[in-house]
Design goal:
single chain; binds S-adenosylmethionine; seven-stranded mixed sheet
Length: 209
Amino acid sequence: MASQLEWRMSDSWDDYADDWDANENARTYADCAFASLIMHLGIQGPEWQQRRILDFGCGTGLLTEKLGPLVEQVIAVDTSQKMIDRLVEKQLANVVPVCVNFDDDHDRELASGLTGFDLIVASSVCSFLPDYEATLVLLAKSLNAGGHFVQWDWLQATGEGDGLSVNRVVDAIGKAGLNCVHAGEAFTLATGQGEAPVLIGVAANVDKN
Ligand SMILES: C[S@@+](CC[C@H](N)C(=O)[O-])C[C@H]1O[C@@H](n2cnc3c(N)ncnc32)[C@H](O)[C@@H]1O
């Protein structure tokens, strides 16, 4: 996976769908995200086999395919129809691919039905959203009590440029009414511009009972 600047040569994620799985960095990013998810939430326990996950911005399902075998169901959503098409072709058990835009009024009814999740993951998605903070408020409403939200994004080191800063992630999690469990660097990836750090944000929905 190239850094944000390198891979966003096109405005449409559809243009990346066919080659996404052949991108070694995209696969490594998903591998590292999954490993850090296991480290923070240990989702391999038997209790997870009755739980539901929303994979927000699932792309072709590089992370989704690792989650499906561990839980009852993964709803995998993305705004790119072509990314969803590639995921549908994989015919993953326990995975329901849905092309939907949580931020679009036209999709509001469909999106509002996507609720009751024990875990929402967003791997390399939030820094591309037009309004990350507002979308996180919407996603938080889809979490069950005691559920978690986990995101990974390029770490914005200087407060400017691509990616998200740890402070912005912590603030957004708080504004969404979630409890920040952890935020910081998770791993680094080799890119054309050198080693690029990736942050993880882990939040818990502790307020609802
Ligand atoms: C860098 S790719 C990551 C894909 C996948 N999570 C992975 O790690 O391979 C970003 C994905 O976010 C999706 N995306 C962008 N904006 C979105 C939005 N508002 N809602 C859902 N998905 C979105 C894109 O279509 C694209 O598939």
